[in-house]
Amino acid sequence: MAKITQLLFDCDNTLVMSEELAFEACADIANEILAKRDITDRYTGEELIKDFVGQNFRGMMVSLQAKYGFEMDKDEIEHYVKEEENQVIAKLEAKAVPCVGVMEELEKLHESGKYDMAVVSSSALRRVRASIKKVHQDKYFKADHVFSAATSLPKPTSKPDPAIYLHAIDVLGKKPEECVAIEDSRSGALSAIRAGIPVIGYVGSYHGDDQRGEMAAKLTELGAKVVMKDWAEFESCLKHIEEPSDTSLASL
Fold first, then answer.
1. Of 30, 62, 80, 247, whose CB count within 10 A is highest?
2. Fold of 6-17+97-242
3. Each residue's pLDDT tens digit, 55-107
4. Are the C-beta atoms of 27 and 43 separated by less than 8 Å?
5. Domain map (residue ranges) of the chain
6. What pLDDT is recorded for position 245?
7. pLDDT tens profile 198-215
8. In the record, which residues are listed under signal peptide (predicted)?
9. What is the pTM of this model?
10. Are 13 and 43 in contact (CB under 8 A)?
């Protein structure tokens, strides 16, 4: 097996507790779009997370059109993509906090110098950079090591499309087997797995044992190599991938 030299971190609810803040803003905009079309359904941020977690706003709009049977032209989509980005960034700059325990792990990884580290997100680049800057994680990631499916590609896309992971490892000069991705959602995990990258699933941002257990089962079923409930488990989870003969983490 190739030596692991590259760690690829999802951002939202993996590095930064941002999903709930972002979906509050998304819900307001989604409801405006529905109201313009005389569709009476309305979303809360929590309901949007349930239906669309792991997708960026552009991907969410595609799903929303499919669900309700309407079409948005390119100009309207671009208008709302920009508006959503501005509103989400404002919320993140005011309220975002790091995921519990992640700062300690990032610092240890940074001090060790053993791995190159990058962020691979579905969210817009401005949003990702605003998130990691707000919680003081930008010192761990070089500016050109932050990748966005919404912004970094010639054609914007969203996870579970593997395009952003394939782009990131190409830019970084890595092979999939030299990398490990850390993902908290089904779409994110699928994106990395489809790119041939081993995945550590993270469920610490979900509420309650039931939600964490349910998501752990889904990520394992999709093909995550191991699932961690807390960032304190990261070192042992990474070792589990680097040394696959170690079966001690099979139940995590």
1. 30
2. Rossmann fold (3.40.50)
3. 788 888 998 999 999 999 999 999 998 999 899 999 999 999 999 999 999 99
4. yes
5. 6-17+97-242, 19-95
6. 67
7. 999 999 999 889 999 999
8. none
9. 0.84
10. no
